[in-house]
Amino acid sequence: MTDRSAGLAFPPNTRRCHRLHSHLYDFTIRVAAHNILRNFPSRHRELSVIYSLDDQPTGQPAALVELLLEASRAALQIDLANLQARASSPIQGKLIGTWPGEHYRLLAGLAQIMRPAIAVEIGTWQGASALALRAGGAPSVVTYDITPWQDIPGTLLRSTDFDDGALQQHLVDLRDTEHFEQHLPQLRRADLLFFDGPKDRYFEQVVIPRTLVALSDRRRLVVLDDIRVLNMVRLWSSISAPKLDATSLGHWSGTGLFWTGA
Fold first, then answer.
1. What is the pLDDT of residues 214-225, one digit of tens each?
2. 149/173 Cα distance (integer angstroms)
3. C-alpha separations of 20 from 11, 25, 119 in Å
4. Which of 108, 117, 93 is nearest to 166 (CA)?
5. How far is CA 134 from the centre of its chain?
6. Are 132 and 95 in contact (CB under 8 A)?
7. Which of 223, 242, 97 is nearest to 156 (CA)?
8. Which of 46, 189, 253, 262 is most buried (CB neighbours < 10 A)?
9. What distance in Å separates the CA atoms of residue 5 and residue 18, rounded to the nearest whole number?
């Protein structure tokens, strides 16, 4: 049996050696990178990669640049003190107010400029992003997770946040095709979607492409978190819709903006 990839024939033992060498190389690179990270003076560090943009599969992002500039000007004036007051620790409160570097004030700025009738968030976690969208003026925020907000340590959410129906949480895994189809009408009503899922090399890789296809009927803004984290780089690079890396004015680990249906 031979391996004829790339038109070449390798004996089985040679093929195994190539695979072993590849795994060892990857392991060596990761060990070296982690050693560098370990000595880097920062509270939180992640592996990433830099790459050229001229050869990226994307449309013209001029409208996204204009939107980002307007939202950033709005973020300069936005005060999330009421949200910071809910923080369960000093560092949590500091992160909510930090901008650029964190994305909460930018999310509020986007909501203020766009005035989306409905904003959808994928990944509730502690609720800071959903509350920031509400603080920016989004009249309705629908947030998805697989864990109830009450069970998340350090949650900023309160039961009263849900009293008037302007904020809703759905407990569903959108990776599941049946669940995705059930909630597709809700997703299609959204003007702004914020993806802040687990970054587990699977969830976003399934849900983002599915969303792009299902929501191709009209233009909506999608905000994608952590696009510079190593296991998100290839996904972000592969998105062919008009897109913009807004990291310098968003989250330090990467903030990406793109249009559906454009």
1. 999 999 999 999
2. 15
3. 14, 8, 47
4. 117
5. 18
6. no
7. 97
8. 253
9. 12
